[in-house]
Specification:
The structure holds three protein chains of three kinds. Chain B is mostly helical. Chain B has a single domain (2-318), classed as Orthogonal Bundle (ABC transporter involved in vitamin B12 uptake, BtuC), CATH 1.10.3470. Chain B is 74% helix and 3% strand. In chain B, the strands form two sheets. Chain B has a two-stranded antiparallel ribbon. Chain B is globular, with a radius of gyration of 20 Å. Chain C has a single domain (2-279), classed as ABC transporter involved in vitamin B12 uptake, BtuC (Orthogonal Bundle), CATH 1.10.3470. Helices cover 73% and strands 2% of the residues of chain C. Chain C has a two-stranded antiparallel ribbon with strand order 1-2. The longest helix of chain C is centred in the N-terminal third of the chain and has 33 residues, at 2-34. Chain C starts with a helix and ends in a 14-residue tail after the last helix. Classes of the chains: A alpha/beta, B mainly alpha, C mainly alpha. Chains in contact: A-B, B-C. Chain B binds chain C through residues 48, 52, 54, 56, 101-102, 104-109, 111-113, 115-117, 119-120, 123-124, 126-127, 237, 241, 244, 248, 277-278, 280-288, 291-292, 295, and chain C through 31, 36-37, 39, 85, 88-91, 94-100, 102-111, 113-114, 118, 221, 225, 228, 232, 261, 263-264, 266-267, 270-271, 273-274, 277-278, 281.
Chain lengths: 251, 319, 293
Amino acid sequence: MLELSGITQIFGGVTALDTVTFSIAKGDITGVIGPNGAGKTTLFNIITGIYRQTAGTVLLEGKNVTGFPPERLARLAMVRTFQNIELFGGMTVLENVMVGMHTKSSSGLLACALKMPWSISEERRIREGAAKWLEFTGILDLSEHAASSLPFGQGRLLEIARALAAMPRIILMDEPAAGLNSQETLALAQLIKRIRDLGITVVLVEHDMELVMDICDRIVVLNLGRKLAEGTPREIQENTEVIAAYLGDDD
Amino acid sequence: MKKDFLLFVAFSLLVMAAPQYFRGGYMMNVLVFVGINTMLAIALNLLLGYAGQISLGHAGFFGLGAYLSGIMTTTFSLNPWVAMPVAAFVVGCLAGLIGFPVLKLKGHYLAMATLGLGIIFFIIFNETYEWTGGPSGLSGIPNLQLGSIVFDSDVKNYYLIWGVTLAVMLFALNLANSRVGRALRAVHDSEVAAQVLGVNARLLKVQIFALSAIICSLAGSLYAHTMTFISPTSFGFNFSIELLTMVVIGGLGSIYGSFLGAALLTLLPEFLRGANDYDIIIYGGLLMVMVMYMPGGLVRGIPALYRKIIKPKGEAGHA
Amino acid sequence: MQFDQILQYTLSGLSTGAIYALIGIGFSIIYNATGIINFAQGEFVMLGGLFTLSCLEFLKLPLWAAIPCAITASTVVGILFERLAIRPLRQPTPINLVIITIGGSILIRGLAMLVWGKDTHSVTPFSGDTPIAIGGATILPQHLWILAITLIIIIINKLYFYHTISGKAMRACSYNRRAAGLVGIDVRRMVLFSFIISSAMGAVAGIIIAPLTMTAYDVGVMLGLKGFCAAIIGGMSSGLSTVIGGLILGVLESLGAGLISSGYKDAIAFIILLLILFIRPQGLFGKSDSERV
């Protein structure tokens, strides 16, 4: 599904990522873990086209997408969520998810402004589709609320619903459990599994080890910008190098 | 949806009926200006209120439309109905072209760059006097004509201008509540989140900048053909600021707010006759007070104020 | 002949350039301390000139006393502006800051129009107006005053930023406001300081140029924008780069006006401004991450 090879990122002399290479299988839930400063979020920013890496290539479903801007990657069915949720605060919950369907709709500026028949029917389709994803994440009853008024946990669910509305084949989540209480985290685990069951490949950066070990099919460990290990949760738990890296840090 | 439509119909009826109550050429003339300013405020609001991109040079596009129309119909004796779309097309292309480098800039830098653009246009209007007549202006611009009706009286102009203004309003209202309008607001709230959802923020910003410039150009052409005389002073930096004031006072991101702002700022000087030169103090004060105490503009501020003052008395029904 | 002309234009360009540099540094100081582009910066230039005029003509003060009075008065306006407009702002987004400083600038200009009227006023030069010949060109004593005072201000500015506690604290704010706050620097006070310094510098610029160009309630707009242009050329530095930016702008403008067309003189600054913003937004001399103070 996603193949990274030799990803290197240098920020003004500091090597944030050093020839990171791994691939992610279709339909898996893959966790990317590592102590603080390991380069996890940087890696996500590179994969999703927000940063341009110093070296290395990214293949998405066999296609070389190195250096593609984020909006083009979205059209290739890759979306992401952010560590500090990025909602459209001035819009309602429903409208947020409707923006998620941007790539699945096509009415242009003039068609929208002139209310052409096809844009009206497309608008209806967008509205219904958005409602469906709000229902999937369990926040349909909030659809008319202002997005900025949601508590953090529900904001997270909204962000996921919005990403799903783009009907991705792969979704990257940057610390989805950060800021959630234990009950919300449990619900999140279920939600992520349900997303996988839709046939969507899931990649997540996460600090909550319990969550990662519970839901991930495979785990990639980064430390100080390098790949330290890769394997099933069991293999990772038994890997002495990984244990040493984590003991050095008190995460 | 239905409610929005009814509101628009009610507003249109009010506009169409207004001449019944404001007989007298002078007031009609002022209302014509309200219409033109409403169009301009909507144009700026689409850019500033929806896409979150400031422009302090919109008077330049307004002037460009007016001068292009004026020059084509006087020097080249073109039919105004042909000149207007040609002017709008040229201005749209120009804005699209300038838009790519300009809209790469953000915040303060964008403000300064657009301000610079506006001033460059203003200097061009003044200096290319063989075309524009320079500071003394361009006169003898023909009125618009439809069959045997010549739009040369205040009442006829009122209906002409307001017909177009209502069309622009409807256009903007539709756009605001559509896929593209949502994408614009998304770019405003979080550009990076919009991008990862597939919104081409850069292209969208340029599109809306060009559309905004086209509306300004159209308003400029109409202004030229109703006034039949134009001079650079109407298109300077101060007018760009006046437009900004209208949008901020009315309410960023509200189309009816743009009308309110335009109406207020156009009518205000009429009520303040005698204090004529001092209207800039009022603009400055209004801008500051609004940003500090009513950042949502009148359309949101007045209902909020109403709730604050009136509601506590009727607390019983609050639950 | 041609050479003499160029020398003449260059010399007079240098003195207007020095004014742009002073205004530009004012922009940079506030920008570096707060992230705000103060659209009202030009108004302090106007205030400096007009307050001097009032001190001379109404209070009948001698020049040496009128100047400090005018600077003080302008600075008080700067303090009021920061206290009443910038500090109370509840949502200090860039757009709100742009709008509020524009509002402030219009308000100050409007009030100045109330006080001093719409006429253009002339201020007597500091030491006569007998031209001094340099090569084939001549300059006025006021030109020398401008260059000398600008030089002194820049030196004081440098000493302040590098050799006083509050100057160093201000530099710390420009690198990282949050970190500066964490080590105990009162960031809000630094913001106020930045407004004090730049309104005083703006006023000085206005005072020394007034005898050359005359002054009126609306001179601040253009001077402010040109000063901003100098700051952009200098990459928003409050040091030498902006001075050079101002001088380059002044000379180019003067040469352009003299040799090409005086009508387009003002356009030159804005074309340079746009080109720099499009091509090298970090300024002519800056690396993308260079030192700002």
